[in-house]
């Protein structure tokens, strides 16, 4: 028996520090199984070049849980180790066997080797009181070796008996980590980290119990050839759909997908899916999984995937992204930025291709696609340049047959004569709520204007940014002013009322409901126009909308009273009767009701103001019911 002391190489102390910045102890299974995969892949490589003789047999990895003995065993049938190799690769911390192998056999499937730092094995001591290794090299005449360590620098190594080549690592789980003696917990970790590793992995959850005849055989927990590792030409649409179900069993089928396959200037494979999003509350980030040679690394990919594509689902895999490193190191890695830029270009090219080849399908998916496209245009200038060609505006029409879609340039052409202001800018009229703002939309459309729909959670910020990025474009919500003033301020049309009557009418409408700041103007509109039109000035409303999205930081502006302009139509015949009314109380109530009807159209009549409006309406109609009972019954 030999005794010795594990040598920690000083020059490698920093990789050790980085290695053990693990947030979760369950990472040990990933590391040890990755080592077992490496050992298996090495054997395949050596066999292919004639260095490993004989039949390989079944190459697999077995995980056995023994709750009675409090052990987890990871077994492989890979290259195994001699006593000298144990001394070199185990006893000298941070000397990477995988890294040395890659250098020696460069060009011969070395990308299948996972390990980089040679530190993964020591993650075992995060959960173990003691670790044993039983290993036998593939080399002819090799003697099996047993190694043992209790987590201190002291170890023992001795010859032992082992029938087959390969390595068994036995972990004696410590009291603090006894959760890993529960089969459900271990299986969950295996499926999280190892579900797509390239070597079959079998889990036997109750190895310590006496086997019964009907005991199930160990189950394979991984798919060794996931869709992203295969060539796109080998896959059918059904294959892509099935892989999506494997990743997200409870999600609705995706809109479409992008298969990424790059080998220069960096290695990158993967499949990115565009999910179907019906409501803003369905938006979920952290649905893209990052792998390195089929080893799960993380689902927090914000440094690798552009921010606006964090809403996508799927998998990306790159051996050029360092495994097990701190986030700051990841941000500084030059390959990360290259991969980020490539993914952006790939997505933009795919969207443009779909738009050009099948515009009808693209338009049909716009409710979900629009969110990605707009978010990207706001956050990535290069993407925005490409997206200008396929970003589309949907009209506010309520029926599918009347609905149309316009690119920016198409909208410029369609509105050339009617929607340019005196400064030569295109005025894009939009609605944030086609149902609530229906009356305003119809009035604008009656004048020949095109009204588009901008009703997603990102549109308030989107239109602000696009006004700066697009030349000669201004956005105006359809209820920001009376229809005559939506494009340019018009001179007042003469009303049939005298100046004195206009003044009286303005005074009658001088109301200030709670939480509203009301400005009154009297204009001579069409006799068909409503008696009062409530509008919300674009600038101040936009400021409040943006502030509301900023949380506590925007609370001051968000809580300011809403600004409303009441435009009284002096040409409406109702005012002849209002001004002639001798009963001042009835006159006042009529005016209040007209104002409330206008505010109701903007969704600004709430609480007690709404209750008062209902009660007052019943009174004016000659009803006998009074008080809150009327309001309760009406509501």
TrEMBL record:
Stored CDD domains: HATPase_Hsp90-like (cd16927)
GO MF terms held by the record: ATP binding; ATP hydrolysis activity; ATP-dependent protein folding chaperone; unfolded protein binding
Keywords: ATP-binding, Chaperone, Cytoplasm, Nucleotide-binding, Stress response
InterPro entries: HATPase_C_sf, Heat_shock_protein_90_CS, HSP90_C, Hsp90_fam, Hsp90_N, Ribosomal_Su5_D2-typ_SF
Pfam families per the UniProt record, alphabetical: HATPase_c_3, HSP90
Keyword Nucleotide-binding: yes
Superkingdom of the source species: Bacteria
Region (Disordered): 208-234
Signal sequence region: none
Keyword Nucleotide-binding recorded: yes
Protein residues bound to ATP: 31, 35, 76, 81, 96-97, 167, 327
Family: Belongs to the heat shock protein 90 family.
NCBIfam families in UniProt: PRK05218.1
Protein name: Chaperone protein HtpG
Name of the coding gene: htpG
């Amino acid at each position: 028996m030999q005794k010795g002391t594990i040598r920690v190489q000083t020059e490698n102390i920093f990789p050790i520090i980085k290695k053990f910045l693990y947030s979760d102890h369950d990472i040990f299974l990933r590391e040890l199984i990755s080592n077992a995969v490496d050992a298996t892949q090495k054997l395949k490589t050596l066999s292919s070049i004639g260095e490993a003789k004989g039949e390989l047999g079944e190459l697999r990895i077995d995980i056995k849980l023994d709750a009675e003995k409090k052990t987890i065993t990871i077994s492989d049938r890979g290259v195994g180790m001699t006593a000298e190799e144990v001394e070199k690769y185990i006893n000298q911390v941070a000397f990477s066997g995988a890294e040395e192998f890659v250098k020696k056999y460069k060009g011969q499937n070395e990308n299948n080797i996972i390990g980089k730092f040679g530190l993964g094995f020591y993650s075992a001591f995060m959960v173990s009181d003691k670790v044993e290794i039983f290993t036998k090299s593939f080399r002819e005449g090799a003697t099996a070796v047993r190694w043992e360590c209790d987590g201190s620098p002291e170890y023992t190594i001795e010859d032992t008996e082992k029938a087959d080549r390969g390595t068994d690592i036995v972990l004696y789980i410590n009291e603090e980590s006894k959760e890993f003696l529960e089969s459900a917990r271990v299986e969950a970790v295996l499926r999280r980290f190892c579900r797509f590793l390239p070597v079959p992995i079998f889990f036997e959850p109750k190895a310590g119990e006496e086997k019964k005849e009907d005991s199930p055989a160990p189950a394979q927990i991984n798919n060794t050839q996931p869709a992203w590792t295969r060539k796109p030409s080998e896959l059918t649409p059904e294959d892509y759909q099935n892989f999506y179900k494997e990743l997200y069993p409870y999600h609705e089928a995706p809109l479409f997908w992008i298969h990424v396959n790059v080998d220069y200037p960096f290695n990158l494979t993967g499949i990115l899916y565009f999910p179907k999003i019906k409501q803003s509350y369905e938006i979920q980030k952290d649905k893209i999984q990052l792998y390195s040679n089929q080893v799960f690394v993380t689902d927090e990919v914000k440094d690798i995937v552009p921010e606006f594509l964090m809403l996508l689902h799927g998998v990306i895999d790159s051996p050029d992204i360092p495994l097990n490193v701190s986030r700051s190191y990841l941000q500084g890695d030059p390959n990360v930025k290259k991969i980020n830029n490539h993914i952006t270009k790939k997505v933009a090219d795919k969207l443009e291709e779909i738009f050009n080849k099948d515009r009808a399908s693209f338009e049909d998916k716009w409710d979900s696609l629009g969110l990605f496209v707009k978010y990207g245009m706001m956050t990535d200038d290069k993407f925005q340049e490409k997206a200008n060609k396929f970003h589309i505006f949907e009209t506010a029409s309520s029926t599918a047959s009347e609905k149309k879609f316009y690119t920016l340039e198409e909208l410029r052409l369609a509105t050339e004569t009617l929607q340019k202001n005196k400064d030569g800018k295109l005025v894009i009229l939009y609605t944030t709520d086609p149902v609530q703002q229906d009356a305003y939309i119809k009035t604008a459309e009656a004048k020949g204007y095109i009204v588009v729909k901008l009703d997603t959670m990102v549109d308030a910020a989107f239109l602000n940014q696009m006004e700066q990025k697009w030349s000669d474009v201004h956005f105006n919500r359809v209820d920001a002013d009376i229809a005559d003033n939506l494009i340019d301020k018009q001179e007042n049309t003469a009303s049939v009322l005298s100046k004195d009557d206009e003044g009286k009418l303005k005074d009658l409408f001088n109301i200030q409901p709670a939480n509203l700041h009301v400005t009154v103007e009297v204009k001579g509109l069409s006799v068909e126009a409503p008696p009062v039109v409530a509008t919300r000035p674009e600038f101040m409303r936009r400021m409040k909308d943006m502030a509301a999205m900023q949380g506590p930081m925007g609370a001051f502006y968000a809580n300011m009273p809403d600004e409303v302009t009441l435009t009284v139509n002096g040409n409406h015949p109702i005012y002849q009767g209002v001004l002639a009314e001798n009963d001042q109380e009835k006159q006042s109530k009529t005016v209040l009701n007209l104002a409330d009807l206008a505010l109701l159209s903007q969704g600004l009549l709430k609480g007690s103001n709404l209750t008062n409006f209902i009660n007052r309406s019943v009174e004016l109609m000659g009803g006998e019911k009074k008080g809150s009972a009327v309001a309760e019954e009406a509501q």
